[in-house]
Automatic annotation (TrEMBL):
Protein name: DUF1059 domain-containing protein
Organism annotation: Actinacidiphila cocklensis
Pfam family of the protein (one): DUF1059
């Protein structure tokens, strides 16, 4: 199942609205890179675990 990371769920100074979806490992990697480059976090195993713990299942948009 695809996973989603949504910056809107976390307060930030930039009011970031980015949403990342994909396979779990892809989302963890991309969201961690985004957290570092945009939000000033330091890349670490702890950051990646924190990101992983906040992921939600993507809701299919089938008609």
């Amino acid at each position: 199942m695809r996973k989603v990371a949504d910056c809107r769920e976390f307060p930030s100074e930039t009011n970031c609205t980015l949403t990342i979806s994909g396979e779990e490992n892809e989302v963890v990697r991309a969201a961690s890179e985004h957290a570092c480059s945009v939000h000033g976090h330091t890349d670490s195993a702890e950051l990646r675990q924190q990101v992983r713990s906040t992921l939600k299942d993507e809701i299919p948009q089938h008609a």
